[in-house]
Amino acid sequence: MARQQNKALKKFAVTPLHIVEDHNEVVPFIHRGIGSKHLPVEDIVFVHYDSHPDLLIPCDMKADDVYRKDVLYETLSIENWIIPMVYAGHISHIVWFKPPWCEQIQDKEIQFYVGKCNTTGCIRTTCKENYFVSETLYCPEEKLENKKKVKLTVLKIVPNRWEQSCNDREPASSAKQGIKVDIDIGTSLSTENDTCTSDQSENCNKNRCDDDNSGQHTKRLCTEELKMKNSNSFSNNDIMTTSEILNKQLEILHKSFCDKHFILDIDLDFFSTQNPFKVMYSDKIYGMLKDLYKFDKPKNLSDEEISKCTTERQKQLSELKAVFYSIHQDRHAEIDHPRKDLILILRDALFDKEESPDFQLLHDAGCTCDDTELPHHVSSEGQITLLVSAVQETISHFHKPVMITMARSSITDEYCPPDQVESIQEQTIEMLQDLYMEINVTNDYEDEDENV
């Protein structure tokens, strides 16, 4: 049935690239692609380059609201816009490529369910990763209705010479020197029973790859181009060694979705990212926040232990939210909390810093302090160039996406440093044009300069 539906799908004459500011703003364009029958209604593969997984779920949104687009778009935010599309049945496989500094979810491949909690009516998941449990999003499978199974593949991209680039102030000479992928997915992916039945077209020329299943051809051209660019900086043996390692891992991954339609999604904070709360608060204040909001991991992965941990975490967060809401309303509000002494020190430290601190924002910052912090790594120009080349190499192993979405993430929370975003965007678009030769770029964000 899926193959019959796919045969009826339309093809874009030129691959569209939609660039937005906040990442959740790409969802309407994906919906339009489904509505115009360029994307299938189900079984989409979502390839996601980002410093953040973006896999949380709007905590209080009713599951049925995924079918009410006006409510959905108002509810989604930058950290929780992908899983609702899983619940709606559109996405069946998420591939999260993360940069070297990200540890929110370890490199692995897992499958789990997303469904409607029969108690709350909200979207929840059976995944027992701390990333979900710490946000109180876990729910046992037997309590879920309208379940959808999703596969999540997490891969860390570590460019070759990366450690050297971290020691150099400006590693320009190290740029574009090949990559390795620091993962161990051979066993997990090789156990899959997926088989690739699509033909690899050779009807491509060097100006453009028109066939949707032209991954091998794109990879070959990209590899040859990288060799030419790098011929003066390192040996062909270095290239072949990294390419062989890369091929074995990415070809296994591509085999699992080579006959499916996929969306290529890139957040520019993949290349350089900052934790806005570390920028906003002093080390002292941020340290107190981490202490207050510390997440006690479950002792084991039994349903009972995970459910208990979820309940305790929910209680911890709701109590802290209530306390800081009270202080936000009245600086001298009575505090009834086991950590009262620390909360008072934190309150006074914030009032010493500014006249009217935003304690609701402080709570939002605290909620990001679970077992891992938000990533913070402002890259040098040389490191950005290394990462752009690394992304190009990995993408070249896949067939052409149906559409490309891109987020700048530079205004609302400044996850991508505002002084770097234009350069990163320019390099990323150039990289995509090198791969696909022709893309239809649409800037779906407001230019701040035009509003001055």
Automatic annotation (TrEMBL):
Q: Name one Pfam family in it.
A: UPF0489
Protein family membership: Belongs to the UPF0489 family.
Q: What is this protein's record name?
A: UPF0489 protein C5orf22,UPF0489 protein C5orf22 homolog
Query: From which organism does this entry originate?
Result: Mytilus edulis
